[in-house]
């Protein structure tokens, strides 16, 4: 590993005091994932990170960023002492940003920011040295941590910025100082903290507040609140680039979902693009075209990026497809599992239902002769005062109406379940955990099964139960 921070550099960045000379090759906030040579940052969350400093040093941490000397740590231990650990991490992040000549993109959106960030990581990494956030590190500690981990010789960086409440995005944007800011979409998410979608749009627009001079705002031109995003771009003096399915700068043309892939035609100016994604989903297609807009705005090659997008696959739990072999002795006795159990709101659920509706079940392999398209849905959380209506109205979704069977878990999903016609209504349970022992009766070989819900609904328990029905094959296992 190459050198990331010396004690002198970290001390200058944070204004802290160090107890000795050291060199760090990484930055960590969790002893469970800490690597030898990391600078351990003792943040206070559910537990106080100072309680883990001794363990971090035993695991090979180069030093620890602390606000006091923890108990049980020898006087000779390598420590970087600051007044406030989080502010120290923020200072490291700002210093890493200041020393970097990287072209930086910042991404936000109600849906799709993590998958879009990963698309950008994939394609930019083939055109230069690219740094991007791990997992969904997009909050008040995730953004400075991502920046603090950025090597000085980075050529492209992708910073994901999220929010749960008003006022969170602006300071993070100003820390990242992006050259390009992207808003994937504005949808009903975190409405418990906002009055309406316009409030969410105003907050998402704040990702442009920290943009570098002559920055570019890549904005979804299809959403009803796009005028709010565009007005904010004008306010900060950013150049606007719009993407979506309407007549826009980057226009999504024909989208075909063909089994496990999505084939996309797009147009930008006089240029036509034809490319594919190795995953089904119109929502992925739209964001992929937005990715090409970001790539061009960063000064990279969008044509090469369009070809490289086929190498991207979504993170686990965000629309990944698995084949569960329920009986290896009988050829073809398996089911397909669409695992999207990490996040849910009406927009993302509609997108997942479109993928399921386009899927083809297999007949004559299960207890039930005809294979089915089955949805197992957990509550969509943080939708605010209209949450009951939003759940019940999903029964009118045209893609949902094409499904054979829908099971639901949670008090909010009961309203969707009750709105279903008898032919589609499967089981309902108060919690996802209560569906787990029933899973053998919920699905069958030959079915294509979508499991979707907010993380807090714990519908991932159902995913685990379905996997235990047999031997799991990922897309990669199938070749």
Automatic annotation (TrEMBL):
<dbReference type="GO" id="GO:0008360">
    <property type="term" value="P:regulation of cell shape"/>
</dbReference>
<dbReference type="InterPro" id="IPR004101">
    <property type="entry name" value="Mur_ligase_C"/>
</dbReference>
<dbReference type="GO" id="GO:0047480">
    <property type="term" value="F:UDP-N-acetylmuramoyl-tripeptide-D-alanyl-D-alanine ligase activity"/>
</dbReference>
<dbReference type="GO" id="GO:0009252">
    <property type="term" value="P:peptidoglycan biosynthetic process"/>
</dbReference>
<keyword id="KW-0133">Cell shape</keyword>
<keyword id="KW-0573">Peptidoglycan synthesis</keyword>
<comment type="similarity">
    <text>Belongs to the MurCDEF family. MurF subfamily.</text>
</comment>
<dbReference type="Pfam" id="PF02875">
    <property type="entry name" value="Mur_ligase_C"/>
</dbReference>
<feature type="domain" description="Mur ligase C-terminal">
    <location>
        <begin position="335"/>
        <end position="454"/>
    </location>
</feature>
<dbReference type="Pfam" id="PF01225">
    <property type="entry name" value="Mur_ligase"/>
</dbReference>
<dbReference type="InterPro" id="IPR036565">
    <property type="entry name" value="Mur-like_cat_sf"/>
</dbReference>
<protein>
    <recommendedName>
        <fullName>UDP-N-acetylmuramoyl-tripeptide--D-alanyl-D-alanine ligase</fullName>
        <ecNumber>6.3.2.10</ecNumber>
    </recommendedName>
</protein>
<keyword id="KW-0067">ATP-binding</keyword>
<feature type="domain" description="Mur ligase central">
    <location>
        <begin position="107"/>
        <end position="295"/>
    </location>
</feature>
<dbReference type="Pfam" id="PF08245">
    <property type="entry name" value="Mur_ligase_M"/>
</dbReference>
<comment type="function">
    <text>Involved in cell wall formation. Catalyzes the final step in the synthesis of UDP-N-acetylmuramoyl-pentapeptide, the precursor of murein.</text>
</comment>
<dbReference type="InterPro" id="IPR005863">
    <property type="entry name" value="UDP-N-AcMur_synth"/>
</dbReference>
<keyword id="KW-0961">Cell wall biogenesis/degradation</keyword>
<dbReference type="GO" id="GO:0051301">
    <property type="term" value="P:cell division"/>
</dbReference>
<dbReference type="InterPro" id="IPR035911">
    <property type="entry name" value="MurE/MurF_N"/>
</dbReference>
<keyword id="KW-0132">Cell division</keyword>
<keyword id="KW-0436">Ligase</keyword>
<dbReference type="InterPro" id="IPR036615">
    <property type="entry name" value="Mur_ligase_C_dom_sf"/>
</dbReference>
<keyword id="KW-0963">Cytoplasm</keyword>
<dbReference type="InterPro" id="IPR051046">
    <property type="entry name" value="MurCDEF_CellWall_CoF430Synth"/>
</dbReference>
<feature type="binding site">
    <location>
        <begin position="109"/>
        <end position="115"/>
    </location>
    <ligand>
        <name>ATP</name>
    </ligand>
</feature>
<dbReference type="GO" id="GO:0005737">
    <property type="term" value="C:cytoplasm"/>
</dbReference>
<dbReference type="InterPro" id="IPR000713">
    <property type="entry name" value="Mur_ligase_N"/>
</dbReference>
<keyword id="KW-0131">Cell cycle</keyword>
<feature type="domain" description="Mur ligase N-terminal catalytic">
    <location>
        <begin position="25"/>
        <end position="71"/>
    </location>
</feature>
<keyword id="KW-0547">Nucleotide-binding</keyword>
<dbReference type="GO" id="GO:0071555">
    <property type="term" value="P:cell wall organization"/>
</dbReference>
<comment type="pathway">
    <text>Cell wall biogenesis; peptidoglycan biosynthesis.</text>
</comment>
<dbReference type="InterPro" id="IPR013221">
    <property type="entry name" value="Mur_ligase_cen"/>
</dbReference>
<dbReference type="GO" id="GO:0005524">
    <property type="term" value="F:ATP binding"/>
</dbReference>
<dbReference type="GO" id="GO:0008766">
    <property type="term" value="F:UDP-N-acetylmuramoylalanyl-D-glutamyl-2,6-diaminopimelate-D-alanyl-D-alanine ligase activity"/>
</dbReference>
